[in-house]
Amino acid sequence: MNGTVYLVGAGPGASDLLTVRAARLLGEADVVFHDALIAEDVLRLASAAKKIPVGKRCGRHSTAQHFINKRLADAARSHRVVVRLKGGDPMLFGRAHEEIAYLTSRGVRVEVVPGVTAALAASADLAISLTRRGAARSVALVTPRVGKGERESRWVASVLAADTAAIYMGAGEAGAIAAALIGAGKPAQTPLALVEDASLPGKRVQYATLADLPRLVTRGGPTLILLGEVYREALASAGLQPLSRRAGS
Amino acid sequence: MNGTVYLVGAGPGASDLLTVRAARLLGEADVVFHDALIAEDVLRLASAAKKIPVGKRCGRHSTAQHFINKRLADAARSHRVVVRLKGGDPMLFGRAHEEIAYLTSRGVRVEVVPGVTAALAASADLAISLTRRGAARSVALVTPRVGKGERESRWVASVLAADTAAIYMGAGEAGAIAAALIGAGKPAQTPLALVEDASLPGKRVQYATLADLPRLVTRGGPTLILLGEVYREALASAGLQPLSRRAGS
């Protein structure tokens, strides 16, 4: 028996924001290896599959990657449909490269099923386009790496050069992110939207300025920082400027 | 009767790469206003709906935008489920802003359903991550605007600052894009993947260098230019370097 390993994007969280193909493959799957943060509703679609949690979405537990690779290859030897389910889209911050390289080098067939990434789901929640005619024609998608020297400051340059930026997996380092961006010349008054648990019933949106980012409080859910002039109108309507004044800025 | 206008992402082309929610809404829709480039297979999901083609995906026919806005508002007055179907994702290069602003100002309820954007579908076709640990942590998504002065050169800066870039709607201006990027300092030997009709049965992938971009031939389908070091290995394997030699560079 030679199965296929499907690297499947689980989308942003809501189970009906999986693609039709992803939902079908989960229904057909014999085994599903999934990231820790995949929603229960999504896993329930894999009703007949053995479900095996592996690793963290944010890429911690990196020592386990070789072990995951090996388990995927083993599973494809005894099962027809093996799904490797990843939050969002597999090809964007999904660390898919190691798994694809390992599997193809061992002759295991791999197919990738794209998914809705968090920046698009959060933008749908806000009903604010990442791009807007006359205001924004470039979007940077980045993961921050703070205080690690010149090579790692490329994420900062990327955010500064784009009209709109989506910063993934940065909520835990809000202070350092704001300092790095403002230090590099991004105006402190740049409007932003902080979106937690995008697409889920408990989603939460906060509008603020870049200077205020470190003072925003999150609940620990997946959080995206959206930054750019396209959020100025929403920030003004949300009336969050008092936060700056309270903090004396 | 007060209906809702759903701005729905149709995804990259394949009908099973719509989200489950998008497919359900198309099935429930009374009317579907769709871009010109939406695939027949996708439109077929809206079996009970009146289907009205409006405008072009690439944003030409801009004079008609006000007319589209008005038709959407009118439709919501007499129908429960009105779908505005846009290629890819509505909030990325989808020109959704005008429609949302018009509809909400007239008290029409709007919901946005995100979709799989072309850069992710093309990356799934290639099985090459846009980001790769140690090599790429930032991605620029841009639409080029060539030879229009300083303000419009921001797309160039954005591509140069990011590790990987996805250039949407640029196939018709390949020569000017390559000249603008190389002129701004992007190495002429930067590897790229040109992906036409991503996710569709007739998809076509060409690996080349930035210098060779103007010599690549497309068939007129939706085409995405993916640019960055993450494509170097695939370019080497594809053995397309002879193209440079033939052209004398």
Architecture overview:
The structure is a homodimer of 249-residue chains. In chain A, the strands form two sheets. In chain A, strands 3-2-4-1-5 form a five-stranded parallel sheet, sandwiched between helices. Chain A has 249 residues and is an alpha/beta fold. The model of chain A is unreliable at 240-249 (pLDDT under 50). Chain A folds into two domains: 4-113, Tetrapyrrole methylase, N-terminal domain (Cobalt-precorrin-4 Transmethylase, domain 1); 118-246, Methyltransferase, Cobalt-precorrin-4 Transmethylase, Domain 2, CATH 3.30.950. Helix content of chain A is 31%, strand content 21%. In chain A, strand 6, helix 6 (154-161) and strand 7 (164-168) form a beta-alpha-beta unit. The first copy, chain A, is elongated and about 60 Å long. Chain A has helices spanning 20-28, 40-43, 65-78, 96-105, 118-126, 154-161, 174-183, 232-238, 242-246, and strands spanning 4-9, 31-34, 50-53, 81-86, 109-113, 138-142, 164-168, 191-196, 204-209, 223-228. At the A-B interface, helix 1, helix 4, strand 5, helix 5 and strand 6 of A face helix 1, helix 4, strand 5, helix 5 and strand 6 of B.
